[in-house]
Amino acid sequence: MAPHSRMVTLDSDIFKCCQKLKTLEWHNDAQAKSLLQRAADQVKPIMARRKWAVPLLNEFYPQMPNLLGLNHNHGQRIDIRLRSPSDPRSFLPYNSILGTLLHELAHIEVGPHNAAFYKLLDGLKRECEQLMDAGNDGRRGASFAGAGQRLGDWSNINVPRHLAREKALLAAEKRYKISSIMSRGGGRLGGSTEVFRVCDPREMALAAAERRRMDDIWCATGRANNPQTGQQQDDSRTDVIVISDDEEHDTTVVDVDSVPDSGSSSTGASPRSTPNVPTRQSPAAMAALRRAGQR
């Protein structure tokens, strides 16, 4: 007799990816547990496809207000901020929490904020979009095709009958929802690739540098930081972006780390000096340097 398809839910053994969830047990702990559980359930299929397992998914509330997430030892523990830095009694939007979790999951395979990291992260975001489009919003009870269904092929996900009527509404809301699931700032999930296609090389390099700079502020995993204060312990790394102007044959070297991060004085990190690198002063490069100096 040919094997028949069985229903697999988020509670099935193959989706036990975040093995333990822990909150701070502060005010309104029930909501904190609900948010953390929902985010963990949302990414279960994504993690199961890659055979990722996180022993502890943990709520934290670091002193540094910009710090949103931290990945310890390639996923042995992931810390996520759930509460507003200005008021620990209120919570961040769910989509912000989910975006932070996707970012920290990418650090399981890639530590620094480099091209390989963002390629992986954009792929995770696209998969999350597909899950949302299929009707999985992370709430318990969402079901998936059973035996023989290849993880990651979300087009054939079975949606229970009682959710069928909601699927049309979910599709209508998808564009709004996914536009807010991101690391920081604006843009659609996985949208950086599409944006780069219409940018010239200089804009691409500057955008990539800015993305790394912003992610280094709110995610300490990409650099050697104190988990609680975000204080940088190793100032030896310098990101240098080489920007070429094919028309003028000019080359400009932009030292990204020569500009101190916001709040660096409060953590005791000394400003870095600009290395003595010869540059040719093309208008685009000078404009980029002026913008960096105004931050």
TrEMBL record:
Q: Which Pfam families match?
A: WLM (PF08325)
Which keywords annotate this record? Hydrolase, Metalloprotease, Protease
| UniProt-annotated stretches for the region Disordered | 245-295
Q: Which domain of life is it from?
A: Eukaryota
Q: Does Hydrolase show up as a keyword for this record?
A: yes
The annotated regions of Low complexity compositional bias extend over 253-274
Q: What is this protein called?
A: DNA-dependent metalloprotease WSS1
- Domain named WLM is located at 9-214
**GO annotation, cellular component aspect:** nucleus
The cross-references to PANTHER family, in alphabetical order and at most eight, read: DNA-DEPENDENT METALLOPROTEASE WSS1
- One GO process term, biological-process aspect: DNA repair
Q: Which GO terms describe its molecular function?
A: metallopeptidase activity
The record's listing under PROSITE patterns reads: WLM
Q: Which InterPro entries match?
A: WLM_dom (IPR013536), WSS1-like_metalloprotease (IPR053000)
Species lineage? Eukaryota, Rhodophyta, Florideophyceae, Rhodymeniophycidae, Gracilariales
